[in-house]
């Protein structure tokens, strides 16, 4: 559900301005509070199905088990082996997972997490979502324009953008397109920091970065945390140069907590349990070795020599290690102190459970969102100059070839048929160019889900903005270019009214044919199958439309197909507009016409009557009404599929992570 009114704000705890020197608390742009996130006995279960369609087996997997903790302003790291637990815990805390599998309480400053928490907190996914065809600054400006309220002046927004770019050392690269992984990662973080949310989540922010860049990123996050931000991130085996900046550390494995507390106390915690630590070893490596069963102070590690059951024994051993470390933590003083603090927060809350219904709220109005979506889409279109140039050359070449061929073959005996053939070629061109429209909402699926969930824009503004910005330059302009060139070279002269009516008909045909692949492709992860289905449909429909031109009738018993034939409506309207009122046998060409072998159709009305086309004005406009109805129905289906796509993608994401985990086991 989207709403632009009264977004829910995260409750803030006021802090002493003396705690963080150098901050001006009188400045409304400066963060003046802190957010403490606590989670109480949370568990997460996923329902998994497998097997044949009618004999599927269903079982429930507990991915997180009775986890509690508290994340305060500072750097809060979540570490663990490659079993998916750390990313899952991060996503659950960030409200990025299906809430139906969640039990327990997640609180912000002792109050239930708001329904629009996704929109009032920042989230940087592991796979960057920046647009590579626009510059770093333009990416950050897009985030600022849609995530900062409109009452904030442009000057204030520009200052905030410049400050974030300078903080991330992006000021010198702000006009560069983010091609490298390192630049895209820093741009992704900048897009979240510019919104100045009190809580920021990051999924493996150092992935694919070299050591220096990764350290610089953590230093920037450290600086932001010192300004009162609560930074929560998952990370895999960081070096000491990164680990030393952590304030809080949470070790998770197999859905259970092995340690949760101050990062600098983790080493003492494990060494006090008789785990031998080499001073030359990296603490993060030491912790992961313990979780993976590499140390033997608690468990008996003697080999039993049964190689046949090695995998089973390894799995059982890992389970035993996890259970032992989890039990050791729940019996520790760290756990007792944490539970005491959590219980005091839990008692303060007024409502009992985490909201099950999530809400997407936006801080900017619909038209503001629409304008920025259209602007970014046009910039993205301009980001492929070579592709655009090649497409233009192909379209112009085809138009010149078709127009030249028609001019050569054109004669007084076949004037009517030549024009009909040209209109049929125009129809075919619209159909062929519309097939690729199905990728419009597919190629940006991940970016759309991230931005919509984060409160950039509503579904309606995104849908309308993409249609206006993408279909006009990619569908309408090539069609107009092709039509004008063909008719000019072919020497077919028509009046201004007829020409613009033809362009309007072509526009309706282009949008209607593009709506079909959109309705089939929306909600899919790939365009291969939808493209095949659309191609088969259009091939059959063009075949039946061609029969009417060259045989004068359709196949017996199959005339009903014309009601489901999108190209038929456009082709019929083009014929009606072009032929009505035409005379192909003027008096000064009587001799030329009389020398023709076959019977010559002299009037456009006669040609239309042979094809069974209604000559009345309604006979023309009924085709446009049909195209409009088809377009509205198909676009409505597309919109409904986009509405359902978010929930479906959440479920698919969970299933993909489970499959990856199963393969790694």
How many DSSP-defined strands?
14
Main-sheet strand order equals 9-10-11-6-12-13
Q: Which class best fits the helix and strand makeup?
A: alpha/beta
Total domains? 2
Low-confidence stretches: 1-32, 295-308, 350-356, 650-665
What is the share of helical residues? 40-55%
Radius of gyration: 32 Å
Subcellular location: Membrane
Family: Belongs to the ABC transporter superfamily. ABCG family. Eye pigment precursor importer (TC 3.A.1.204) subfamily.
Protein name: ATP-binding cassette sub-family G member 3 isoform X2
Membrane topology: Multi-pass membrane protein
What would your notes on this structure say?
The protein is an alpha/beta fold and 665 residues long. The chain has 2 domains: 2-121 and 197-361, P-loop containing nucleotide triphosphate hydrolases (Rossmann fold), CATH 3.40.50; 366-656, no CATH class. 52% of the residues lie in helices and 12% in strands. The protein has 21 helices and 14 strands. The chain has helices at residues 85-93, 136-147, 154-167, 181-193, 211-226, 240-243, 266-271, 283-291, 310-330, 333-348, 366-382, 385-409, 415-434, 445-453, 459-490, 496-521, 528-550, 566-579, 590-594, 604-610, 617-664, and strands at 2-3, 13-14, 33-34, 37-50, 57-71, 74-79, 102-108, 111-112, 122-124, 199-203, 230-234, 248-253, 256-262, 360-361. The protein has a 6-stranded mixed β-sheet, with helices on both faces. Strand 10, helix 5 and strand 11 (230-234) form a beta-alpha-beta unit. The two termini are 38 Å apart. Mean pLDDT is 80; it is low at 1-32, 295-308, 350-356 and 650-665. GO terms for molecular function: ABC-type transporter activity; ATP binding; ATP hydrolysis activity; efflux transmembrane transporter activity; riboflavin transmembrane transporter activity.
């Amino acid at each position: 559900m989207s709403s632009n009114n009264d977004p829910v704000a995260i409750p803030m705890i006021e802090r002493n301005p003396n705690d963080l020197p150098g901050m001006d608390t009188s400045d409304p742009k400066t963060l003046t509070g802190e957010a403490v996130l606590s989670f109480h006995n949370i568990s997460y279960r996923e329902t998994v199905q497998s097997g044949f369609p009618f004999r599927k087996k269903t079982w429930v997997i507990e991915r997180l088990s009775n986890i509690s903790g508290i994340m305060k302003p500072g750097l809060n790291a979540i570490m663990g082996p490659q079993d998916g637990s750390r990313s899952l815990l991060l996503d659950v805390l960030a409200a990025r997972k299906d809430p139906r599998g969640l039990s327990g309480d997640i609180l912000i400053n002792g109050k239930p997490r708001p329904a629009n928490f996704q929109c009032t907190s920042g989230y940087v996914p592991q796979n960057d979502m920046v647009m590579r065809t626009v510059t770093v600054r333009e990416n950050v400006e897009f985030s600022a324009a849609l995530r900062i309220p409109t009452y904030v002046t442009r000057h204030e927004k520009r200052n905030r953008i410049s400050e974030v770019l300078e903080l991330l050392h992006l000021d010198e690269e702000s006009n560069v397109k983010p091609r490298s992984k390192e630049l895209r990662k820093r741009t992704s973080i900048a897009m979240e920091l510019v919104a100045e949310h009190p809580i920021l989540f990051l999924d493996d922010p150092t992935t694919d970065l070299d050591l220096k860049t990764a350290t610089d990123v953590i230093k920037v996050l450290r600086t932001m945390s010192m300004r009162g931000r609560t930074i929560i991130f998952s990370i895999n085996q960081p070096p000491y140069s990164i680990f030393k900046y952590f304030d809080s550390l949470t070790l998770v494995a197999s859905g259970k907590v092995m340690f949760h507390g101050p990062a600098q106390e983790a080493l003492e915690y494990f060494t006090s349990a008789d785990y031998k630590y080499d001073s030359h070893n990296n603490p993060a490596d030491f912790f992961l070795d313990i979780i993976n069963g590499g140390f033997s102070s608690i468990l008996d590690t003697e080999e039993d020599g049964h190689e046949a059951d090695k995998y089973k024994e390894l799995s059982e051993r890992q389970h035993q290690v996890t259970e032992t470390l989890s039990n050791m933590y729940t019996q520790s003083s760290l756990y007792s102190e944490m539970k005491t603090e959590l219980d005091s927060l839990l008692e303060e809350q007024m409502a009992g459970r985490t909201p099950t219904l999530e809400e997407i709220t936006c801080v900017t109005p619909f038209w503001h969102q629409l304008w920025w979506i259209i602007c970014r889409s046009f910039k993205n279109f301009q980001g492929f100059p070579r592709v655009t140039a090649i497409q233009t050359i192909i379209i112009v070449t085809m138009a010149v070839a078709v127009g030249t061929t028609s001019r050569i073959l054109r004669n007084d005996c076949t004037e009517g048929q030549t024009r009909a053939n040209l209109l049929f070629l125009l129809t075919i061109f619209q159909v062929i160019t519309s097939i690729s429209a199905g990728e419009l909402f597919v190629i940006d699926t991940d970016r759309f889900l991230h931005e919509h969930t984060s409160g950039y824009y509503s579904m309606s503004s995104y849908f309308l903005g993409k249609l206006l910005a993408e279909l006009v330059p990619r569908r309408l302009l090539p069609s107009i270019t092709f039509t004008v060139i063909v008719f000019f070279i072919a020497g077919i002269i028509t009046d201004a009214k007829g020409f613009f009516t033809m362009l309007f008909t072509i526009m309706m045909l282009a949008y209607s044919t593009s709506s079909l692949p959109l309705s089939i492709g929306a909600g899919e992860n790939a365009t291969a199958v939808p493209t095949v289905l659309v191609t088969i449909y259009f091939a059959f429909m063009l075949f039946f439309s061609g029969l009417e031109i060259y045989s004068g009738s359709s196949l017996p018993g199959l005339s009903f197909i014309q009601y489901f034939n999108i190209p038929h409506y456009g082709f019929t309207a083009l014929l009606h507009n072009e032929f009505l009122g035409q005379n192909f046998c003027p008096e000064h060409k009587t001799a030329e016409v009389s020398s023709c072998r076959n019977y010559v159709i002299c009037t456009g009305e006669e040609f239309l009557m042979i094809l069974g086309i209604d000559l009345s004005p309604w006979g023309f406009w009924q085709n446009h009404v049909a195209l409009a109805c088809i377009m509205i129905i198909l676009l409505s289906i597309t919109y409904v599929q986009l509405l359902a796509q978010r929930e479906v993608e959440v479920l698919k994401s969970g299933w993909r992570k489970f499959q990856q985990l199963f393969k790694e086991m």
